[in-house]
């Protein structure tokens, strides 16, 4: 009888160590290590991305300068919104000391409106996501209310709250609550129900299931909803500040328009864009950190 013998060395048969090293997991790990590259590759990719973004900004600036240079139209209003005149208008606003104070007021109203929307939207979203019957009853009403433009509530807000910060904060909250509520509800419905079953089997109370199971599971959805609400609230904030208030970036646009200072109008518009971009970038970082936990 002939006995078959396998050897672990190269000359005597299959190499089991080589087979282990060439398993699918190791192969994927090897491909991942090769695809990551070194610090030089990562730095080059980052530099290329920043370079592309800078190129896009320069192209936009060139188009802006061309449209306001007088080659397209000789309208004095349009020529007054050129990049050079806008830079001069920005300097005038800074010298008067109104731009920073108006930006601070606008950011306060934004944060207050978002906080109010989150305090209402997150609990309501959890309630709708956990209670199917509540969703069936309140769902049509929620869909109806969220389709109403927040600015259409402006006369009601002014009549109820009067003149000042309160109506603006109300309009911001009215715009921001729906993304937060619906995103939270969708996150609860997408959660694996087995988590709640395990917690219930282990004797966890309703409050413990909510705070230790549901909220940590839907935290990415809550943060994503807040980021969406931030963009919506920032868009609503500026026109809301054009209604019966005497401070804020929206008011400053109207004030500059009444003085026919269109260079200052463009300056405030640029400040609004820069602040909005910074807020979105900050929310993206917070969302990345919250989902990584």
Structure characterization notes:
The chain is mainly α and 293 residues long. The chain has two domains: 43-75; 90-292, Orthogonal Bundle (MetI-like fold). The protein is 79% helix and 0% strand. The chain is built from 13 helices and no strands. It has helices spanning 16-21, 24-36, 39-67, 76-79, 83-96, 99-130, 132-146, 154-161, 165-190, 193-201, 206-240, 249-258, 262-292. Helix 9 (165-190) packs across helix 11. The longest helix has 35 residues, at 206-240. It is globular. The termini are far apart. The chain crosses the membrane at residues 46-67, 107-129, 141-163, 169-188, 228-245, 265-287. Keywords: Cell membrane, Membrane, Transmembrane, Transmembrane helix, Transport. It is found in: Cell membrane. Residues 103-283 form the ABC transmembrane type-1 domain. Residues 1-42 are annotated as: Disordered.
């Amino acid at each position: 009888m002939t006995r078959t013998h396998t050897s672990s060395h190269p000359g005597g048969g299959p190499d089991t160590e080589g087979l282990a090293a060439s398993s699918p997991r190791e192969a994927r790990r090897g491909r991942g290590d090769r695809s990551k590259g070194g610090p030089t590759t990562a730095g080059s990719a980052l530099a290329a991305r920043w370079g592309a973004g800078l190129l896009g900004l320069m192209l936009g600036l060139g188009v802006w300068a061309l449209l306001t240079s007088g080659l397209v139209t000789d309208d004095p209003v349009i020529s007054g919104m050129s990049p050079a005149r806008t830079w001069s208008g920005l300097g005038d606003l800074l010298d008067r000391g109104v731009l920073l104070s108006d930006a601070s007021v606008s950011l306060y109203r934004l944060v207050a409106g978002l906080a109010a929307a989150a305090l209402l939207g997150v609990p309501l979203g959890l309630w709708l996501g956990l209670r199917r019957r509540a969703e069936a009853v309140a769902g049509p009403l929620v869909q109806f209310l969220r389709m109403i433009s927040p600015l259409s509530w402006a006369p009601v807000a002014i009549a109820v709250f009067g003149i000042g910060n309160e109506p603006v904060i109300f309009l911001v909250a009215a715009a921001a609550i729906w993304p937060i509520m619906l995103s939270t509800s969708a996150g609860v419905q997408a959660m694996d129900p087995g988590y709640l079953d395990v917690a219930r089997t282990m004797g966890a109370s309703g409050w413990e299931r909510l705070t230790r199971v549901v909220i940590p599971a839907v935290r990415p959805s809550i943060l994503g909803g807040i980021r969406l609400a931030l963009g919506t609230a920032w868009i609503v904030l500026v026109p809301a500040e054009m209604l019966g208030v005497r401070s804020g970036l929206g008011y400053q646009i109207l004030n500059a328009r009444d003085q026919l200072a269109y260079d200052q109008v463009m300056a405030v518009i640029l400040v609004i864009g820069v602040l909005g971009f910074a807020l979105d970038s900050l929310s993206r970082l917070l969302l990345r950190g919250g989902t990584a936990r």
